[in-house]
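Supplementary Note 3. Input sequence used for the single-chain structure prediction.
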Amino acid sequence: HKKACKQTVRSANVAKLAESGEPMLKVVEREGSGPKVEAGQEVEVHYIGQLENGTVFDASRPKGRTFKFVVGSGRVIRGWDEGILSFKVGERSTIYVCSDWAYGDDGIPGVIPGGA
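The predicted structure, written as discrete structure tokens, is reproduced below.
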């Protein structure tokens, strides 16, 4: 039941994103207690990259390490560069990103379908 519930919540949030016309939707799971992240700041995150159907295409925890990047540097998808700017240090959130702010119409062949 837990997996079905997660799929229902994920589908509802994807629908909210589509209805909003916005490029991104953030759902806060745990508020951060630190300062808000700023452009140019190096951040260290754990992440799960998932498709709308729940398929995980990448994740940091199985690799046993966090992922570090400088916010706003263009090293990651635009959804991350823009989305992380709304985080506070210590926050845990899920970001739903439209394809334009993720991997676009081309996707990543064999990993992420175009338009995902």
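The longest strand covers residues 24-30. The first helix runs from residue 2 to 20.
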